[in-house]
Amino acid sequence: MSDKKQAIDPDLVRELAKILSDTGLSEIEVEHGELRLRIARTLTAAPVTHMVAAAPVAHAPAAPPPAAGPAPVADAASHPGAVPSPMVGTAYLSPEPGAPVFIKIGDTVTAGQTLMVVEAMKTFNPIPAPRAGKITAILVNDAQPVEYGEPLVILE
Fold first, then answer.
1. 147: left (phi over 0), alpha (psi -120 to 50) or beta
2. Is residue 17, in this structure, part of any structural domain at all?
3. Is residue 70 part of a domain?
4. Which residues contact 121 (CB under 8 A, 6 or more apart)?
5. Which of 7, 71, 82, 101 could form a disulfide with 151 if both were Cys (CB 3.0 to 4.6 A apart)?
6. Is residue 37 part of a domain?
7. The sheet that has 89-92: what strands, in order across it?
8. Three-state SS for 97?
9. Geometric angle at alpha carbon 147, from 60 and 130, rounded to 5°
10. More confident position, 72 or 151
11. Measured between alpha carbons, how far is 126 from 116 in angstroms, rounded to an integer?
């Protein structure tokens, strides 16, 4: 790296911020030569929690999605077996593209077993089962953005 510092053009920063606003993206990164500029905006996930949602990454589905999408559950958020997302991010049902999914409807899981991962800020965070039980519904699709507190699965 050279000792020369490249000045950041304030107009470039404004233009990138406008692109974020116009497109609804949460972050944008530009690299030109030795200049690397990342602009991110903070999204409010809950009244007291502030997190930035990571942009979804290309992730091939590990299994064909169910024909009807995620299993519908009436008022899933208030269901006693709902496992909520602890963060804003992108939910993945398998550890990597092409790998088998962590869980399927009807599976029996143990406390602490990984149900899925949620990517937030380029970090994959395992979502463990809070208790042992049977998976009766998977409420998200692979590579689906999720919000803080959003129910991910129903564990009975």
1. beta
2. yes
3. no
4. 52, 54, 89
5. 82
6. yes
7. 123-128, 114-120, 89-92, 144-146
8. coil
9. 85
10. 151
11. 6
Q: Which burial class, exposed, middle or buried, applies to 108 when counting CB atoms under 10 A from its CB (0-12, 13-18, 19+)?
A: exposed
pLDDT digit string, tens, across residues 61-120: 555 444 444 545 457 777 888 999 999 999 999 998 889 999 999 999 999 999 999 998
Q: How many domains does the chain have?
A: 2
Determine the average pLDDT of the residues in 108-134.
Answer: 93
Placement of tokens 């970090």 in the chain = 123
Q: Which residues constitute the domain of residue 110?
A: 76-155
Length of the chain: 156
Q: What is the pLDDT of residues 12-59, one digit of tens each?
A: 777 777 776 776 666 777 776 777 777 776 554 444 444 444 545 555
User: Contact at 8 Å (CB) between 13 and 37?
Assistant: yes
Is the pLDDT higher at 141 or at 2?
141
Residue 107's CATH number? 2.40.50.100
Rounded CA-CA distance 38/27 in Å is: 7
| CA distance linking residue 88 with residue 110, whole number of Å | 25
Closest CA to 53 of 22, 27, 29: 27
What pLDDT, on the 0 to 100 scale, is given for residue 143?
Answer: 92
